[in-house]
Design brief:
alpha/beta; TIM Barrel; about 270 residues; 8-stranded parallel beta barrel; homodimer
C-alpha cells in the first residue's frame, strides 16, 4: 500500500494546524508538510508539542523567500524554525521580483541567493527544495517552471539541494520522464505531490483537481518516480476553492481513497 | 519602422470581420490573420471581396481542427477556404481529445493527423503552423506546449510545416532563445505574435496584456526572432476582456503605438 502524506494547504481554510495534525494522526498519516504562516496562527510551541505528542514527522517546510531584501533577512530565521520542526526540506519562494527585472536576470539573481543560503541550510541539516511551478505562475510565484531547470540548478549548487515533483505543475512537460530519471539518478527527489489537472481549469491558483478528477496520467508519473528510486510517500497537495469548502476530514478521506486506487498497485 | 499585422481576435468582440478589415486598411495595415467562424458571420464572398478591395493579405487562417472525427472530416474544407483567402499558413487546433486519452498518446495521434493532412496542404500552397500554446492550455486547446516540441514535429514532418512564436505562450520557456534559433536555422518561423503577460493574470484565456503592460522582455524576444532570420511583421494578438470592451480602433491605435515603441529600434 502506498504511504500517503498530507500538505496542510489541502485543508487549511477550515482546519488550523492543530486540527490538521489531529486529522492526520486519526488516519494513520505519519508525514506532513507545513507552513510558517499556519504555525504563527496557533503558536510555535503549541504546534511543536502537538506534533511530538502525535508522533508526526515533517517533510517540507513552506517557505523561504521571497528573495527580496526583506525576505533574505528573514530566511535564516525561517531556516531555523524549519529545523526545529525537523523538516527534511524547505521550499524556496522565487517569485515576486519581476517588477524590477526580466525573467532571465531574476533567475540568475535568485539562484545566487539560494547558493548564499545553502551553507546555513546544510549546517542545519535541511535540504533546499527547488520545486518547478507551472509556467502560468512564472514571475508571480516562481521563476523556475521546468524540472530541467530545477535539475540544472541542483547540478550547479550541489549537495543540500533537491527537487520536488508536483503533478499539477509539471504534467504538461514533454521532457518530464527524462528529467524525473535524471533527478533520480542524482538521488535528489525530495517529494512527489499529487493532485490533478481539470479541464477547464478556472483559476491559476485555486482550482486544482482531486486525484482522479482530471487528465493527468498519475499512474505513469508515479511509475516514473518510483523507477527513479524515490521511496517516500505521495504527498496530497490540493489548492482548491471547491475542496477548501468541504469538511477537512472528508476531503482527506476522499484523497486517501483516491491515492489507494491509483498508487497501491505501483 | 516595424511592420505591424493584426489578428482579428484582438478586436473580434466589437468589430466583425468587415469592420476589422476596414480598420486595418485605414491604418495602413497590410497583413491580417483571420478566423473561419468570423468569415461565416459576414459571408465568405463578402469577406473575400472586401479583402481584395482593400488590398489586404492573409497571414494565418484559424483553424484546422480539433482533430476529432468530425474535425478531420472538415479539415479539407477548411484548408480549401484558407487557400481561397490566400493564407500563408493555417493553425492546427490540437486540443479537445484528452477525455479519451492521456497526453502522450494524444500527441502522437494529433501529429499523425497533421502528417495525413500535409499532402493536401502542400497541394494548396499552405503551410501547417505548429503554434505551441501556453502549458495552462495543455489538453484543452493544444497538446503542444513548447517551441522545442513544435520544432521536433517540423523536423519529422518536413516541408510544408512551420512554427508560430507567440510571446504570451512561450515567454516563460527557459529554452526559448535556443529554440528560436533552431526554428530560424530551418527557415520555419511563420509568425511572431506580440502581446504581454500580466502579473497577476486573472484568466487562463481572456486576460492577455497589451504590449508593454506586462513582464515579457519583448525587445529581447524580437531580437532573437530577427536574429533567427524572420522578416515578417509582428502580429498583434490579444485575447482580453479588458481590451475587447474598448473601441476597436482605439485598441489598434494603442497597440500600434506600443509596437513602434518596442520594436522600431530592432
Amino acid at each position: 500500500m502506498v504511504e500517503i502524506a498530507f500538505n496542510h494547504a489541502t485543508v487549511r481554510e477550515r482546519a488550523d494546524m492543530l486540527e490538521f495534525l489531529d486529522l492526520c494522526a486519526e488516519r494513520g498519516v505519519q508525514y506532513v508538510s507545513i507552513w510558517g504562516q499556519e504555525i504563527d496562527k496557533v503558536g510555535e510551541d503549541v504546534a511543536l508539542r502537538r506534533m511530538r505528542e502525535l508522533g508526526l514527522r515533517t517533510l517540507g517546510y513552506h517557505r523561504i523567500g521571497p528573495f527580496t531584501d526583506k525576505g533574505l533577512s528573514e530566511a535564516q530565521r525561517e531556516l531555523e524554525r524549519a529545523a526545529r520542526f525537523g523538516a527534511d526540506h524547505v521550499y524556496l519562494f522565487t517569485g515576486g521580483g519581476l517588477e524590477q527585472s526580466h525573467i532571465a536576470g531574476e533567475r540568475a539573481r535568485v539562484e545566487q541567493a539560494a547558493a548564499d543560503l545553502l551553507p546555513a541550510a546544510r549546517a542545519l541539516g535541511l535540504k533546499l527544495a527547488i520545486e518547478p511551478l507551472h509556467p502560468m505562475l512564472a514571475g508571480d510565484r516562481s521563476v523556475f517552471s521546468t524540472l530541467a531547470q530545477a535539475n540544472a540548478i541542483c547540478d550547479r549548487l550541489g549537495a543540500g539541494t533537491g527537487v520536488v515533483i508536483d503533478a499539477h505543475h509539471v504534467w504538461w512537460d514533454p521532457e518530464l520522464d527524462q528529467e524525473i530519471s535524471r533527478a533520480g539518478a542524482a538521488d535528489r527527489i525530495l517529494g512527489f505531490h499529487v493532485n490533478d489537472w481539470q479541464i477547464p481549469t478556472r483559476d491559476l491558483v485555486r482550482d486544482r483537481g482531486m486525484i482522479g478528477d482530471g487528465v493527468i496520467d498519475l499512474a505513469s508519473m508515479a511509475h516514473a518516480v518510483r523507477d527513479a528510486g524515490f521511496q517516500g510517500p505521495v504527498e496530497v497537495e490540493i489548492f482548491s476553492d471547491k475542496w477548501w469548502n468541504e469538511d477537512p476530514g472528508v476531503v482527506m478521506d476522499i484523497a486517501m481513497s483516491r491515492c489507494h486506487d491509483v498508487f497501491d498497485a505501483i
